Amino acid sequence: MAHRGMATGHRWRTTAYAVGMALALVAPAAAQQDGTGGAAVPPSPTSADRPTSAPTSSPPPPGIVVRPSPELQRWACVRRCQDRQSGDSGSLLRLRGRWLGRAYEVVFLGAEGSADDVSAAPLRRTPTAVDVRIPLGAAAGPLLVADRDGLESAPSAVPLVIAAPATLRATRAPSVEIQTHARRAFFDARHGARVSYVVHGDGPADVAIELVRPRDGAVLRRWDVGAVAAEQRQTLAWNGIIGSSVLRPGSYAFRATAVSASGARAESARTTGSEPDPAAFEFLRHEFPVRGPHYFGEFAARFGGGRGHQGQDVFAACGTPLVAARGGTVEVKQYHARAGHYLVIDGHKTSMDYAYMHLRDAALVRVGQRVRTGQLLGFVGQTGRASGCHLHFETWTGPGWYSGGSAVDPLPSLLSWDRFS
After folding, report:
1. For 199-250, how does the pLDDT look when each residue is reduced to its tens digit (9 = 90+)?
2. pLDDT tens-digit readout, 165-190
């Protein structure tokens, strides 16, 4: 069974450790400078791509707080169970271990790979225990705990068994159940917003799914699915676009309506009290590019610092994974004496180019390749002219990087992405 991580294509999530400190080691990264104090010049290749070795990490830079990863020791089904290792949608699991107090989600891994991963919000958490319901779309397999910093436990040694759903008493009135596959959905990610739903009743029903904004109840999009057989789980995927525009970041939810042949109507239930809404999710347009503890450089490491520094330096341990902040097409992948290994991505459905510099090795993608938000690009390094392991990150307006566009300060965007993703 694959572990979630860079070797298997699974995502790693790590949120902010921005400590805003000035360190003496932060010399001007100046990946783009011409070495004379004059205007920046486009990098040019000076060596061929070099082989990428197995990822290894250095100790984190001074000042970064590294918390322990959640440790999942055992789990059991405690309510609505077939036995202690099996249940179905809505069964209550209790997970025990250490460092669980900051648990953000429980991920049901299913089979190898990330395609069938489904996560659910904890109902209750303490430093040593987490309660969670089996989500509607979960498949049999291991599970793990991810905390608010994106740190993950190892997958459980004992896999979850998904029991056959209980036989329901025949009824003419339908009901409908709906649940998202993840608590966050990123635009242009490999797996976007997905939702599973099932109609309960004694026959098929016509189903409609709506995307709503919970704060005011506004319906943003509607899918008229048509007749759906009872007790057959269905899945709907959405790409994050409303009309021709990418949806604004924020909190959203899916709702379902079912109408039986007799005209009986049912809507998916809203949650009450403190239990999280299983059909709610956060939609985000970007993902923070450094997946590990990090901080933002000051002074010469800021945009405009030093001799015309055109980006923001994000310091992290060498070997920390780097991912695409926004999906798009790889325009440049080269090596330069100052920028080191670097690449430029033309952001999908933006007017922006995103540049990543000082990678430890040649990027793991190729020129012309279509990459997705959150896709692994490489690892933090200090190739080229760099003092300390860091990512030098640039954002450029259209028409693009050194092709008529202008560099803009990426720090406000990075801080926002870091906070929410």
Report:
1. 998 899 999 999 999 999 999 999 999 999 999 999 999 999 999 999 999 9
2. 655 545 557 899 999 999 999 999 99
Mean pLDDT value across residues 354-375: 98
Q: What share of the chain is helix, strand, coil (3-state, %, to 5)?
A: 5, 40, 55
Q: List the one residue out of 403, 390, 182, 402 whose CA is nearest residue 310.
A: 402
The Cα–Cα gap between 374 and 420 comes to: 14
Q: Look at the block and give the residue holding tokens 């025990």.
A: 96
3-state secondary structure of 388: coil
Contact by Cβ (8 Å): 309, 382:
no
User: CA 212 to CA 280: how far, in whole Å?
Assistant: 9
Residue type for 49, please? D
Number of domains forming the structure of the chain: 3
pLDDT category at 272 given cuts 50, 70, 90 is: low
Instruction: Supply the CATH number for residue 132's domain.
Output: 2.60.40.10
- The answer to whether residue 27 sits within a structural domain is no
